[in-house]
Design brief:
CATH topology of the largest domain in chain A: Aldehyde Dehydrogenase, Chain A, domain 1
Structural class of chain A: alpha/beta
Enzyme class (chains A, B): oxidoreductase
Distance between the termini of chain A: 44 Å
Organism (chains A, B): Paramicrobacterium agarici
CATH superfamily of the largest domain in chain A: Aldehyde Dehydrogenase, Chain A, domain 1
Shape of chain A: globular
Helix content of chain A: 40-55%
Number of domains of chain A: 2
Largest sheet of chain A: 7 strands, parallel
EC number (chains A, B): 1.2.1.41
Oligomer: homodimer
InterPro entries (chains A, B): Ald_DH/histidinol_DH, Ald_DH_C, Ald_DH_N, Aldehyde_DH_dom, G-glutamylP_reductase_CS, Glu-5-SA_DH, GPR_dom
Largest interface: A-B, 69 and 70 residues
Function (chains A, B): Catalyzes the NADPH-dependent reduction of L-glutamate 5-phosphate into L-glutamate 5-semialdehyde and phosphate. The product spontaneously undergoes cyclization to form 1-pyrroline-5-carboxylate.
CATH architecture of the largest domain in chain A: 3-Layer(aba) Sandwich
Chain lengths: ~425, ~425
């Protein structure tokens, strides 16, 4: 960390968080659950204050010409605040991961060893101007026994400051140290840089947001990062795929909720399936409002298919645009996926056992599917109760992350005087 | 990665490793086992070539004034080479972690999800001038289905080059791509820098060696790092500790093998135990050849105790030197440990259930012990069969790392046309 005045203040907040994390680690699961309930009540009791802080952000955002989509993500209303409190209660009700025994054994010399889940300690979060993420991350951290240092987008600073105050007061009232939740929003970019360099004070950093935000954190941080990533997600329609199944999966994967990372961006169609599969598929995509952009061969099947953009295959559209490419073979599809995938989720539609097993084995992504919509890659769907994010890296967590992924482990060793011979 | 000629060559080797890793991931466990056996045989068949390469390193090392300890670590002889081949056979015989099912379930809609262990892909290793690490890391990587990029200390370049050639030829002969094992020793520091920046080509980087080497890798690398760390390891002798148990554990923890990271560096003695425990403890330490350096209060118990150095409490001696401090209470001991521990291993010697449970709960280290020697922190002792290193970080792996810790996971999802509602 740097030697500036900002550096010193940020460092002292992180040290406060570190000390608070030690106290929090000793709190029982039910104390943390009670604190979360207190936070939900506190949010519900401060609707007016939160709305008025949020309104100041909205006004400033409008003045600064913030895009309508970003303004919408920034905006809170009574319903959204009620949903925040509900989400906190939902997280409070989840199974406590802390103290779970992962494995253990008794060595021949009688020493017992046991690996148990423990909180990381201090979790840092860097995210964009979405006040709901402030509450969400703080609640997930608290449920898993971690202190949290928040750094939200500057456009949400008034909302985040108010929410952080509400959360910290509720923590104190519930008998836990307020320093368990820290914000460094007031230090802008410099604060974020300090957070990324705070190795030893912060145990893990979670960036949530755009690909460029995540890339910045990954390349600048000396604190270990869990990368929750962009999804250039593929569906491959194999030679013998059932036409109705293919249409249903591709349309669901693209259009059921196009703005999220598990939505499909590219469909690869085996040449031998194209004539059989494409008419119904294209018709269903059209009625769902999807614009299809294809390579030359795909475009030969329908005048409605627009030409693929130069960077089509590496683009995460996050809207109702779908790239389409005709491939010669499963190998061709695997090659395309190896080249362009962001290793999030890919699905094959096929009736061939051999091809489905090859696809499962050879695609190097967090989630690999056969005959299912890529929209299933989700912590809620997988039964985790909550989702911290979807990890596209291979270290520590891969795919949907639940509370368990916010913990580390520690080995407890109990002897009665044994020494090594 | 940079745009230099070195950058281009290193990148092309990493790309070769990446492609080879995809082929390796499809090899069966028994193919990888057979390749390891072929490597063991190849090492045994090239004793002369390996010894002559090693001799050139030793001569150059002597000319360059390499310290005797480093020369000894660098030196190979017939016995050591035989031990290398034996170690490869031992690793070949370990249970294959690839394909193990971690968890799974059937969702209500009939979709089956299953989390299985998969290789990382490409593992990078940066280490010092110890030829045995070259063979050890390559064998562990291969057993866990990973390609490996090696960067050993320049003082061992002749030995490492020869060993890498032997390993690669054996791989080819066994029908696996030689590119599964890559070395970038010929590019010195610039090569290491390229490796640390090769995010996307290398999945995880493991530094093995001194604290300064590890710190460099941690701060310069954009590739995720597993930190295997230094051990400033503590034994705390509680107020009511049994004197014989305390002496036996402290002496074993310090002196049984002082040069390794799980050896104790500091003993903290509760004031109420000092008079009872110290005479026998100091006598046993003396006969084991241990030099004790203490704070003023400790020195009052024996003229043989030397004064503690200014940086005594943060020093990893790795020799027969032990720091000793008298503390007022368990809280005092916990405070000292929180301040100076490198979060590797700490042990309490006590008869108090309450204090042992507090110690286990409050000490934030990879391994926390009650009435046992810190020397037990070891992959072999824990039953892992092999040890990749001892992780002192909290992400992915903590404590002794076995083959399992060299794998990631992937979710396999099997449906029959399900889409999200």
């Amino acid at each position: 960390m740097t030697d500036t005045r900002t550096g010193a203040i940020v460092r002292s907040r992180l040290e406060d968080a570190r000390r608070a994390s030690r106290a929090l680690a000793l709190a029982t699961g039910s104390q943390r659950e009670a604190a979360l309930e207190a936070i939900a009540v506190a949010i519900e009791s401060d609707v007016e204050g939160i709305l008025s802080a949020n309104e100041r952000d909205i006004v400033r955002g409008r003045e600064n010409g913030l895009a309508p989509g970003l303004l919408d993500r920034l905006r809170l209303d009574e319903n959204r605040i009620a949903a925040l409190a509900e989400s906190v209660r939902h997280i409070a009700a989840l199974t406590d991961p802390v103290g779970q025994v992962v494995r253990g054994s008794r060595l021949e010399n009688g020493v017992r060893i046991e690996q148990v889940r423990v909180p990381f300690g201090v979790v840092g979060a860097i995210y964009e101007a979405r006040p709901n993420v402030t509450v969400d991350i703080a609640a997930l951290a608290l449920r898993s026994g971690n202190a949290v240092v928040l750094r939200g987008g500057s456009a949400a600073i008034e909302s985040n400051t108010r929410l952080t105050e509400v959360l910290r007061r509720a923590l104190s009232a519930a008998g836990l140290p307020a320093h368990v939740i820290q914000s460094i929003d007031d230090f802008g970019r410099e604060g974020a840089t300090e957070l990324m360099r705070a190795r030893g004070l912060v145990d893990v950093l979670i960036p949530r947001g755009s690909a460029s935000l995540i890339n910045t954190v990954v390349s600048e941080s000396t604190v270990p990062v869990i990368e929750t990533g962009a999804g250039v997600v593929h569906v491959y329609v194999d030679a013998d795929a059932d036409a109705a199944t293919a249409a249903s999966i591709v349309v669901n994967a693209k259009a059921q909720r196009p703005s999220v990372c598990n939505a499909a961006e590219t469909v690869l169609v085996h040449r031998d399936a194209a004539e059989r599969v494409l008419p119904a598929l294209l018709e269903k995509l059209r009625s769902a409002g999807v614009t299809v952009r294809g390579d030359d061969e795909a475009r030969a099947y329908s005048p409605a298919i627009e030409p693929a953009a130069a960077d089509e295959w590496s683009t995460e559209h996050l809207d109702l645009t779908l790239g389409m490419r005709i491939v010669d073979s499963l190998d061709d599809a695997l090659e395309h996926i190896a080249m362009y995938s962001t290793h999030h989720t890919e699905s094959i539609v096929t009736n061939s056992v051999r091809n489905s097993e090859r696809f499962l084995a050879e695609v190097d992504s967090a989630v690999v599917m056969v005959n299912a919509s890529t929209r299933f890659t989700d912590g809620g769907v997988f039964g985790f109760g909550a989702e911290v994010g979807i990890s596209t890296q291979k270290l520590h967590a891969r795919g949907p992350m639940g509370l368990t992924e916010l913990t580390s482990t520690k080995w407890l060793v109990r002897g009665d005087g044994q020494v090594r011979g």
